[in-house]
Write a structure and sequence with these properties.
Number of domains: 1
Number of strands: 13
CATH architecture: Sandwich
Structural class: mainly beta
Shape: flat
Largest sheet: 6 strands, antiparallel
CATH topology: Immunoglobulin-like
CATH class: Mainly Beta
Helix content: under 10%
Number of helices: 1
C-alpha cells in the first residue's frame, strides 16, 4: 500500500533557486513522491538468515524494524535542480543509523532536537550544545535521537526515478 505525500505533514520536497522565487504566480515544479513503510523480518532460507520485506504491515510489535522508502519521480520534461526531500522519523520509532548514503548527486542530512529546538539539517554526526549546571556543554547526538532525514539532490533528470530509504525500530 502506498501513501502519497504522507498527508503533506510528513514528507516534504522543496526546490530552491532564484527562478522559483521570481515565478511566484506559477506553480513550482517538483517530483512526484510516494512513501512506503514496510516491515523487515529475518527468516531462514537455505540454512542462511536473510531479510524479508513485508509490504505495508497492518500492525507491528515493539522491536520491529521498518523501512521508510520514498520514491521520487521527476515527471517533468526538464531537469529539476536542488531538490530537497525530507522525511520525519515516525512517532514511536527510533532511527537505526541506516539511510541511503550521500553520493555524487545528493547529500544525506539529518535533524534532531537539542534543548527542545530542532537542529538545522546537516550531515552526520550531529552535535548539540546545551547548558548544563550553568555551563555550555557540547555532545554528540546519537542516531537514535534523529527526528528527520533529508536528501538534497543536486538535480533530477527528466523522467528519472530515485528510491531513498532509512530504517527505524518500533519503540
Amino acid at each position: 500500500m502506498k501513501r502519497q505525500l504522507f498527508l503533506l505533514a510528513g514528507l516534504w520536497v522543496s526546490l530552491s533557486g532564484a527562478a522559483i522565487a521570481q515565478q511566484a504566480p506559477a506553480k513550482a515544479q517538483s517530483p512526484k513522491l510516494t512513501l512506503d513503510q514496510d516491515l523487515i523480518r529475518s527468516v531462514q532460507k537455505d540454512g542462511k538468515t536473510v531479510e524479508e520485506r513485508v509490504p505495508a504491515p497492518s500492525a507491528v510489535l515493539p522491536g520491529s524494524v521498518l523501512i521508510e522508502e520514498v520514491t521520487a519521480q521527476n515527471q517533468e520534461k526538464k531537469v529539476l535542480n536542488t531538490v530537497r526531500i525530507s522525511v520525519p522519523v515516525p512517532r514511536n520509532t527510533q532511527y537505526l543509523g541506516s539511510a541511503t548514503p550521500s553520493g555524487e548527486r545528493w547529500k544525506t542530512q539529518f535533524t534532531a532536537l537539542c534543548s527542545g529546538k530542532a537542529l538545522p539539517y546537516a550531515e552526520a554526526p550531529l552535535n548539540c550544545t546545551e547548558t548544563v549546571d550553568g555551563k555550555s556543554v557540547t555532545r554528540d547526538v546519537l542516531p537514535s535521537e534523529y527526528v528527520g532525514v533529508r536528501w538534497v539532490l543536486a538535480n533530477m533528470k527528466s523522467d528519472e526515478t530515485l528510491k531513498l530509504s532509512f530504517r527505524v525500530k518500533v519503540n
